[in-house]
Amino acid sequence: MIMEEEFTESKETLNIADDGLPAEFEYKPSKELLQDYGGMDGTDQQQQNLLQQSAASQQLQQKLVDPNSCIILHPGSRNLRLGLPSHSVPFTVLHAIARRQKDASASKRLDPSIVPLAKMSSDRLREVEDCRLKVSHILQSSLTSDGTRRFATPPKQLSTHNRRVNPELDDELSEPCPALLQPTQDYVTGDEVLNISPHAPYHIHYPWQRGDLNSHGGIGGSLTAVMSDLELIWSSAIQDKLNIAHSDFKMYGCCVVIPDLYNREHVVHITELLLNSMGFAACFVFQDHVAATFGSGLGCACVVDVGDQKTSVSCVEDALSIASSRLRLSYGGSDVSQVLHWLLRKGGFPLSLEPSTNSTHATLVNHVKHTYCHVNLDKCGPEEQQVRVLQPGSHPVHYTVQLGDELLIAPLSLFYPALLQLTGDKTTVLTQPDNPGHHQDPFDENYLRDNSRRGGKETAETAGGGEVGEEDMVVEDQLTNNGSSGNNNSNNTGSFKSLMSLEQAIHKSIEGCGEEARRRMYSNILLVGSGANFAHLGRWLHSRLLLQIPMQFRPEQVEVMTRPKDLDPGMTAWKGAALMTGLEGSGELWISQSMWEKMGVRVLREKCPFIW
């Protein structure tokens, strides 16, 4: 008691504060600092700001769930699909722009509307011809559904008939087709680009190519120019098709469907474009293969997306695309169109076509492909078909031609890719490369992986050289394989060489999954994209897949879905994104302008519905 009283008295005498420091040395923060960090007078202001931000965030999330407050964009190599979640199907516009030349005497850049034919050596052309003969012989040796052997008409016989065909007027009273345009504005976007005269002083750009941004060393090929093209195309399409003024973009959120095999730098630029350049209130990035499973109502599937210029494959389970299963092939529906054009020439098609340089001819070849091509083995022998030709400034005419097995050989080139080398080398297979890192996101997976290894090593040394625990190994494996491809190399450059057919690509993709997931993936194959929209193609893929599946992973039933819910396969991913934005929990995935300004690239790792 005496000691306590003495200590209390001495404390009062020396004027010592309760924390043990003399009162004159007591730290008193300024009012401004308290307001910044929340203390005393600043507490109320900070809490008020947090409440206001939380209320604004909740209000924005509730608004974006509204099916009329969100715009869905699905960009592709040829088409842009867009609409509101309340729409049953999206609008489809040409994903291209024509910009007026500043110097009319300078050379023009005219991106073709269909992939051009490649210059081939005689040896390469002989390989393509041998592959055509191989497919033709396979078709001749196949059986129809009633067990009879198919027969085929030789191309020379078809050529003899077709070369004698003359054009016939569709209707003598019909008006001539509109002439090509000579526009005067600075730029033209959408479907009107195809109607511009090739002699008009305009550059024509397709900002998306082979499933990614079309950056190159030519005119308009810089990343800045490509993003500017995207802004004009997307803004014009939204205003024309959805009747939403540019000044009203700030009242909407925008969900953009990105490739499953994405380029991180490009995703950052697209997010910057949507939030800062176009001025949307918030944005949401969604992988196309995951969106396709949502649109088809599947929780687990191996998704095969055959687009206009690329074919991508990945395995999706529980709304996540498995990174080690992702791969992309450099061929698609446009390459199939060029194969069909080559076969039509061999069959003596009466009209000389140049689809690589003439957009009207490219449209005609695509029309023949979509209308007449199939993989129905019950159809054999020559069939008379009317091919309608719409030449600008001329009356519509049609040719009555005989078409044979070229209608089957063209779509079957997806299974015999040597035919597709008419448009160039197809041996490069892209995979998900390692994360190169970003200066705005220092604590990314590379940082976590390096520190987990260092921490595991220190723990082992501290424990006297003991083994690392199984749980630590699992965490490290997840970090290591997060951005790697199916080959699981530590330094994955994102590609390898192989001439892969469609079923081989599916098999390679599923090999990137764990053993437990492989059987589930083989039992659910989802075929989407407009590039493989051919009748009975799913049956052929099913029979080819059965030859690839190992016995230990063969499921009881292999199902290949080509038109889930009777929806156009080219619109499945867009429909899935529309469904995703309407879910109750999707409000947490939106990236607002304020989030982007404060966090930058880091917010993508926090908000994206996939492993960034």
Automatic annotation (TrEMBL):
Pfam families: Actin. SUPFAM superfamilies: Actin-like ATPase domain. It comes from the Eukaryota. Coiled coil: none annotated. Residues 430-471 are annotated as: Disordered. Residues 436-460 have a biased composition (Basic and acidic residues). PANTHER family: ACTIN. Belongs to the actin family. This is Actin-related protein 8 isoform X1. The lineage of its organism: Eukaryota, Metazoa, Ecdysozoa, Arthropoda, Crustacea.
